[in-house]
User: Fold these one by one.
Assistant:
Number 1:
Amino acid sequence: DGRDPYFEGTTALRSSDWYLYRDPNQTIQRTYVSGVNESEKALDRSISGARDAGLFSFADTDWVQTGLATHYMTYPYVEYGLFLALCYAEREALSDTTTFSIVFEAADKLRHLQDVVYYSFELADAFPSFDDTDIAQVWKQDPVWQGARAAVEHIIALDDWMEVVVATNLCFDRIFGELAKVEYFSRFAAANGDVVTPIIIASSEADSARTLRWTVALMEHLLNDPLEAKHNRGLVGEW
């Protein structure tokens, strides 16, 4: 629309100096790529080892079809929606330090999506009855998912990049993300003899912990700003 590529109006939150924020993880591209490479290789070895040891067969077949094929394979829609929202946020962010933190999180979301899709191929090989062809309709129509879908679509539609960060990292992922991935998929996988799914989720939860650390640091920067703290605290509370 002819405006400057970066301007303060992209978020209602205010900072005396956006560049004072620092990522406590000290993540840069080189360390991120190296760390991701090691994580993905470890995950691949774990899945291959479980397959070779015949551990897939321990899982209850009803759990595989309902818990995994129907619901866990639907979770990539969540990850992709949040990836899209974060892509907008990183483009609008007002310092390179915040931009990189958001970029790495967006990349994590895409990786987690791909890990689940790759896992579906392994499950299809291990269980001839495995069928996840209806996941698009599950995402669009199953009542279990409609609250999550509405929340993700609202986050995608936000035009305030910091509201995207708050909604994704401090609200959605802390509430629905933890409930679905940890309290449902991980907990009930173990109860149904599925020892592989928790390994995949543990890998993604390590990334979520890194994201939470930098989000807390960014919020501390904004909510303790010497000039803008009162304004920011009120607005974040409304969000």
Number 2:
Amino acid sequence: MPEMNLSKIFRADHLCLEVMQIPDDQDPLSIPAVDENYIFELPLLNQLLLYLACPQHDCLFLSGPAGCGKTSVALQAAARLKWGVEQLTLSARTEACDLIGHATLRRGELIYEYGPLVRAMRRGEILILNEIDLMPPGELSALNDVLEGRALTITQNFGERVQPSPYFRVIATANTKGSGDPTGFYNGARQLNQAFLDRWRFVELGYPEAKVEEAIIAKANPKLDKSKVADLVRLANEIRRTSCPDEGRPSLSAPFSTRVLLRMASLLSVCSKLDESKALEMGFAARLPEHEREYVMRLCADIFGNGQKSELMGRKAPKRMLSKHHEEKAE
């Protein structure tokens, strides 16, 4: 198998590994497309590359708030390494057979159709399981042996055994760490079995630092003025400060993600007649309850209005913005 120079591939210095062996027989159709505008954060990239190079019978669990780039970092690393990916978004109705496969009738003949798990095992691909904390824990337990690098026995296909390729990897993404969601943001997130979670390495993601996020927005929207990009990121961080439920602080009912920020920037970039307040309303604020929407729109006016900092800036949100969950907790 060929060795690839990682510094050259990712155009980055100070990587934890200089070279990596990767499979050279990947299906071109399974390799993700490279996004030239994507920007890697070095600490996260190092942890991801370390797992891909040296899994040591572990899988990788990427947790973090909505829209912070959990799936995209895995896809863009795979794209640059030319490593095939099988990807599936899980839900409360996902069953083990959706991953492994099932018997199906085709042209009058009953055949066994393999799922993304088996395909990735055989081809030495990366299996990405999005929203893993939404799938029932009992169904996930069927993967325990596979996650440790052992063969998969398909009882529904006459006990067929599938040996994993040495290049088979599993990456999961979730808004939680498998212990449920105390914030109330992510309805349906389940508490996963601890024996299942013991088979994973955990990497926690957050929203990028201001300078990184500015670079992401500017690269995706080169028509936007640099000062406007900086103000958009400033607005995002003010809203996030309000949205943080830690330390008893008030919380908005929805997180302001990098995805939302990119949406706002894109709207402003393609329509020069659109102002920032309307872009904020379309991209985020319209989904909020009235009193929350009023608050974030006033924050927007503080930054993009007359340029003067009002009494809202640097202060906590009104107490009425506390969710019922946090009111009960405060009592």
